[in-house]
Design the sequence.
């Protein structure tokens, strides 16, 4: 590296930080003391996924997302960023939605996980899946499983009276208004831009 | 089949399936997570290993050393393909930046290694153990600084320069004049599915299960990049998690997976990690635009010029933002020019409506500014200057053009008459409210496309073509086309796409996919009609297909009696189209609220009225347009790849820092399609619509912000920091 990279400045630090995110900028001298040949730690974990129990022994670094996609071959849950920035990996854990990429599988001993495959099948769609088809609430389909899992959880959150940033009345009965749903869905990016249709699909399900 | 004159097929007199709002046939798969995308194809080949790509840590220079020792010893590692141990791969007609190999670094995050291991976690950990040292070189990263030395574009998507009459003289003498600059930043496609590939070798034959918009281009490119014959390559891409131009071309995922699979002697799967995508792959280049308009006192445009400066790693072709200006407004004396300079940033290439998308952000704001100067309503100003033939080439007639209707009908629906011409004069509590309008133009290109249609012997039909569905709805419109032509209900038609083993289609790009690929399916159906007619001894001119039966010459034969008859057909478009300007048009409307204290901008309403030929499936076509309007909202209000002009890369290379619209940003969106089939376009009288939707909503939003506040921001994106010191006094 030339000395430009050694000059300490906020920008320089940012640049180095950004590079290290993509694993490309390790100094030539040994950076850490860790032995590169050490076997990765393995740990047993029992998960219930869509009602079926799985006993797995996993590299402890395995995310819940990769456990689903690579080990259980449940590829309905998508990897869009692997950083908790896009929402494509949203699943329900014990009824609550999470970004499965931000969670290690071994943290979920005994948990009940529901993925998009657990909500419905092509022959027997969940009402939310059906509403998405009816309203064309998707295009490429890659964010769709995450949108659907989030949408199901959002309506449940509203039913249970969990407040959001835009809830105006914290003590009254919470309503699934357009803005209330949109606020809560904002962690699920859809680059094809199906938002307007997703809001309509959700409204249809919310109205029953 | 050559399409060499206006379409008159009787099929179109009373269509039963085409043109009807139709739910996607792939919808149940996509909504249940059972549609398989590239990285998910566990079933196609056993024993897949994981590849992890490493990107260069400098923007320009040379690798002096790569220490791979620790990575090679790391647990689970099967093979490492490293730039220092590999000759540079070949290039292709579709790639500019080097994809892999050798010590030379041409842009930041250029792929320099791929680590293959038994698991993803092991591959990632080992990749982090590779230590690379570089000898950086100075590079050029600042477009504004080098723009003055830019030269006319070479080999881009549109005319580098066009002239008619004497622009300078007429502009100089014009009664009213506007001369303004606008800038648009670098943008990223940011499709939700990262580029991904599974590669497997069987002897010298390579199969890639990948995510690519253009199967045949992909096959040709891989052959050229890897120096193997095309017929040894199979590309398969049935589901694609978004592309927007970013997956038109083979990228490092496919190249690295193929090389890694060879090195590992087993199939390898590679997904480009999200933080790598923004700098490793392509982007829409930034532009600097200058628009000059001269009118007479009544507002008739006499002189118009649009110039654009952009940069690219090639220094040859960039982002030609002048592309629409030759088509849009009258004016006898005119010029456009697109200048390109060399930059050492990652490769710039096509993103949804290349040229025209940012072009409208300049031109259609300039039109708004000129209308205001003249004291005219911006809709009336546009209509006054509607040309009779293509303004830059007056000998070219319009095939169908209903832009005036788009603007008029849009204005009525949107309540345009309530707009106050004086900016910053409408309030709603803390919000300053404004309306904006823009015209929209995008060309309607079509290209050669083939398909095979086969009867299954059970009363159904199957269509196969290498066409792709990138979210556009290809599966469904292709099924609709075959159902219509064969007199079948939609559910009797199955469609298989995206495999290079199938007939070569137009692919998905440039808004040509829907119109071209359905024309190809139509051509195959006409071939099948001929074979059936021959088999049954019916005159092909009188044969009819209704309710699963063939009718003619006094016979009625169920399709199920015909066995497994099949035909391949191809549509080719004749030269006659060159005499016409065939485009798609829109009136875009937007209402925004701007917080009078903070400058926060919220979109309140959006409307697009589109004139885009026969709409094959209004349900999915509407989704194309609202999706493009959403991407337009991003381009106008938030999207910007921030260039680090010292280190030469895009700083905000992930989905948290490269901001795209989310649910909270987008209200209900209205889309209206005019019923305007265009017989000059294709046998089905169809055109594309997916790019029209991003041509203009940008400027409509920008013009609405101005109408709300009286602040004109000409440097996109329009963010509150550019407005807050100019907001009207409270």
Sequence:
């Amino acid at each position: 590296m030339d000395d430009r990279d050694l000059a300490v400045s906020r920008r320089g630090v940012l640049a180095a930080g950004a590079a290290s995110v993509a694993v490309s900028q390790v100094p030539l001298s040994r950076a850490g003391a860790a032995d590169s040949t050490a076997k990765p730690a393995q740990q047993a974990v029992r998960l219930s996924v869509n009602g079926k129990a799985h006993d797995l022994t996993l590299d402890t670094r395995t995310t819940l997302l990769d456990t689903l996609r690579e080990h259980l071959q449940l590829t309905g849950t998508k990897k869009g960023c692997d950083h908790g920035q896009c929402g494509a990996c949203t699943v329900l854990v014990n009824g609550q939605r999470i970004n499965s990429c931000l969670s290690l599988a071994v943290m979920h001993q005994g948990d009940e996980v529901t993925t998009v495959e657990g909500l419905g099948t092509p022959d027997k769609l969940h009402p939310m899946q059906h509403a998405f088809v009816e309203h064309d609430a998707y295009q490429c389909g890659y964010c769709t499983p995450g949108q659907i899992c989030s949408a199901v959880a959002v309506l449940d959150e509203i039913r249970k009276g969990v407040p959001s940033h835009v809830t105006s009345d914290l003590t009254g009965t919470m309503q699934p208004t357009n803005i209330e749903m949109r606020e809560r869905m904002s962690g699920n990016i859809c680059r094809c831009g199906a938002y307007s249709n997703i809001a309509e699909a959700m409204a249809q399900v919310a109205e029953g | 089949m050559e399409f060499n004159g206006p379409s008159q097929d009787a099929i179109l007199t009373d269509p039963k399936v085409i043109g009807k709002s139709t739910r996607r046939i792939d919808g149940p798969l996509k909504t249940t997570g059972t549609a398989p995308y590239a990285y998910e194809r566990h079933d196609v080949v056993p024993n897949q290993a994981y590849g992890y790509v490493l990107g260069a840590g400098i923007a320009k220079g040379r690798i002096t050393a790569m220490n791979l020792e620790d990575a090679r010893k790391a647990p689970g590692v099967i093979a490492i393909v490293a730039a220092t141990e590999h000759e540079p791969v070949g290039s292709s007609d579709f790639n500019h930046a080097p994809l892999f190999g050798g010590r030379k670094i041409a842009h930041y995050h250029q792929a320099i290694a791929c680590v293959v291991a038994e698991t993803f976690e092991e591959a990632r950990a080992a990749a982090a153990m590779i230590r690379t040292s570089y000898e950086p070189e100075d590079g050029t990263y600042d477009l504004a600084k080098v723009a003055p030395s830019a030269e006319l574009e070479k080999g881009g998507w549109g005319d580098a320069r066009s002239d008619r009459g004497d622009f300078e003289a007429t502009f100089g003498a014009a009664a009213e004049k506007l001369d303004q600059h606008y800038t648009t930043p670098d943008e990223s496609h940011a499709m939700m599915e990262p580029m991904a590939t599974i590669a497997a070798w069987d002897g010298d034959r390579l199969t890639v299960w990948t995510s690519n918009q253009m199967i045949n281009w992909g096959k040709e490119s891989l052959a050229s990049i890897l120096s193997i014959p095309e017929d040894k390559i199979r590309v398969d891409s049935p589901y694609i998690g978004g592309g927007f131009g970013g997956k038109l071309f083979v990228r490092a995922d496919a190249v690295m997976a193929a090389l890694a699979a060879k090195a590992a002697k087993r199939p390898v799967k590679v997904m480009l990690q999200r933080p790598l995508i923004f700098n490793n792959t392509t982007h829409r280049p930034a532009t600097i635009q200058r628009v000059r308009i001269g009118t007479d006192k009544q507002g008739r445009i006499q002189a118009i010029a649009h110039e654009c400066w952009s940069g690219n790693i090639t220094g040859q072709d960039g982002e030609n933002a002048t592309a629409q200006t030759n088509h849009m407004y009258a004016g006898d004396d005119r010029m456009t020019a697109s200048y390109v300079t060399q930059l050492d940033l990652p490769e710039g290439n096509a993103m949804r409506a290349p040229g025209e998308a940012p072009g409208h952000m300049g031109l259609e704001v300039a039109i708004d500014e000129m209308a205001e100067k003249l004291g005219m309503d911006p809709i009336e100003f546009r209509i006054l200057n509607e040309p009779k033939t293509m303004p830059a080439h007056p000998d070219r007639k319009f095939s169908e053009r209903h832009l005036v209707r788009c603007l008029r009908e849009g204005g009525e629906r949107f309540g345009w008459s309530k707009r106050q011409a004086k900016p910053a004069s409408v309030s709603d509590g803390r919000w300053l409210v404004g309306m904006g309008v823009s015209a929209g133009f995008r060309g309607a290109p079509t290209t050669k496309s083939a398909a095979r249609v086969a009867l299954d012997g059970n009363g159904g039909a199957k269509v196969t073509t290498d066409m792709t569905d990138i979210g556009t709805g290809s599966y469904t419109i292709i099924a609709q086309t075959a159902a219509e032509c064969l007199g079948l209900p939609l559910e009797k038609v199955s469609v298989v796409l995206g495999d290079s083993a199938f007939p070569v289609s137009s692919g998905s790009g440039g808004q040509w996919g829907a119109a071209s690929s359905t024309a190809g399916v139509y051509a195959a159906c006409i071939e099948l009609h001929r074979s059936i007619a021959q088999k049954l001894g019916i005159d092909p001119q009188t044969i009819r297909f209704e309710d699963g039966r063939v009718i003619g010459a006094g016979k009625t034969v169920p399709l199920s009696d015909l066995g497994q008859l099949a035909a391949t057909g191809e549509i080719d478009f004749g030269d006659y189209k060159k005499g016409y300007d065939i485009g798609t048009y829109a009136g875009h409307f937007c209402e925004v609220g701007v917080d009078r204290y903070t400058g926060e901008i919220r979109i309140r309403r959006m409307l697009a009225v589109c004139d885009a030929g026969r709409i094959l499936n209004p349900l999915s076509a509407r989704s194309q347009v609202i999706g493009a309007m959403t991407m337009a909202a991003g381009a106008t209000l938030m999207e910007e790849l921030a260039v680090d002009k010292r280190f030469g890369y895009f700083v905000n290379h992930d989905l948290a820092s490269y901001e795209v619209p989310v649910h909270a940003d987008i209200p209900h969106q209205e889309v209206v399609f005019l019923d305007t089939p265009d017989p000059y376009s294709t046998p089905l009288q169809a055109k594309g619509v997916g790019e029209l939707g991003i041509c203009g909503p940008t400027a409509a939003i920008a013009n609405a912000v101005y109408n709300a506040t009286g602040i004109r921001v000409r440097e996109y994106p329009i963010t509150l920091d550019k407005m807050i010191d100019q907001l009207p006094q409270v």
About this structure: The first strand of chain A starts at residue 42 and ends at 49. Chain A touches chain B through 88 residues (CB under 8 Å). Residues 127-207 of chain A form a domain with the DNA polymerase; domain 1 fold (CATH 1.10.150.120). Helices of chain A lie at 10-21, 64-71, 116-119, 127-134, 144-159, 178-184, 195-207.
